[in-house]
Amino acid sequence: MDHAGIGATHVNNLMATLNIPVASEKCLRNHEKSIGPITESVAASSCKDSASKEKAQSGSEDIVMSYDMGWQKRGRATGVGHAIGAKTGLIIAYGTRSKGCAICLNAERRRKAVPPHDCKKTHSGSAKSMEGSVAVGIGNFLKNSGVNVAVMVGDDDSSAIKRLRTEVFENISKSSDLNHVKKNLGNALYKLKQQGHKEMSDMVIKSVQKCFMFAVHQSKNDAPSLKASLMATVPHLYGDHKDCGDWCAYSKDPANYKHKSLPYGRDLSNERTKSELMKIFTMYAENANKLANHGSSQANESFNNTVASKQPKSRSYASSGSFGFRVGAAVAQKNIGYNYVSKVCIEAGLSPSRHAETLGQKMDGKRKKESLRKSSKPVKRRRLELSKLRSSKQSAVEVGEGTQYGSECARRPLDDHVLPPPSGPVSYKPLETSKDTNLVFFDLESTGFGDCAEIVQLAAQSGSNTFSHYVVPEKSIHPKATEKIGLTVTVVNGQRRLQRVGSKEPLQSVTLHDAITTFIRWL
Length: 523
Description:
alpha/beta, 47% helix, globular
């Protein structure tokens, strides 16, 4: 029941559908109470083993861990904090906090005396203090186990690092999670857009984020270099390149330099927006130490999803004894795999199910295979392409439909710019030409498939007359585009040149301006 993430009602519904006699809810709860502590014991044992493995792989008692907390109930009344080792990717410690107990709350609601029971209320402070409280508990557990945490990777949304440094590990340092940093930067940039900074279009925001992440990745473990790069990023976007480092291509060709991801390759110009961007980047530059030694808490986010599968947020098990059992099941599944069920059965004196073992092996293999597939570069690249494609299609549809959903949109009149539906079926008519008409057929080859793709060939034909000019693009040609057009860009002695795949001879190329003007004269 806990393993499947369902309750007594769901179990009985399934059994009744399969024509199997149902069990009373009390019976199922009693069995859960007998197996649950064993599941928690298996989970705790797996955490000790994971901490030992992490220490062994780190080569010392000093380890790096990522820490995060997930919330199981709206209003954050219950939470699960967990630490994952950077080397093993396994949970080395975890803790839970709950502001309520189902039995206590039920007695209070009925105005009756609270009966003797194992109270599940473990936190009396505010929900905001839970994350720091669990972090201290995890820190003490690891310290008593002979493990010293040198670096904690996490978001910057709580004061957990301050409490750890004050109460447990005096010399612990903090590394920021890049996913949260990028998200927070994006929120700050979109806030500028909402405040009336018209220059902050979606394309500009993505360009700023791209420059920021490039600076962080290029200066890993080098805080002074990162600080300098971040302070030079905003001036770089506004055409001031005197403080740019080797990452800037302006010094190579100042006369023809264009930004790759800004609209039309032009510099930004609004001074008011520049001032606000400098404030944002200065704040990040002052925290360069956290960003330079960056890490990832993506494994923690994945584990939050595992907990949610055992304890869905749409149903409340948080204030009952089932809460700890379900979290223990999630921890054991993360550290041991789906076959933790067999281990729990053995510890409980039961025979392990052959079907459970078979399914567990199948699920573990599937999870490993899927993890390798999703971490490959082609899959990541395709995921980004599909995301851009969906966004583009959605924007096109919304423009045609007008405002269909929004705050109090029903109180406002319909948009005047809504495109009317077609009046009838689309019909095609043949092109009428005369003997004096010269038909021109032309085609373009480009570096990719997006809006920012560049022209690499302009070709046309009219009768027996042909036209073809090649253009060296400023960007690299997308691998998928190379497969279709058979062209690629190489750099020889600092000079970019266009050539066919498999050939070492460069193609004769001109500038885009010359190609278009020549084409106009040819017409």
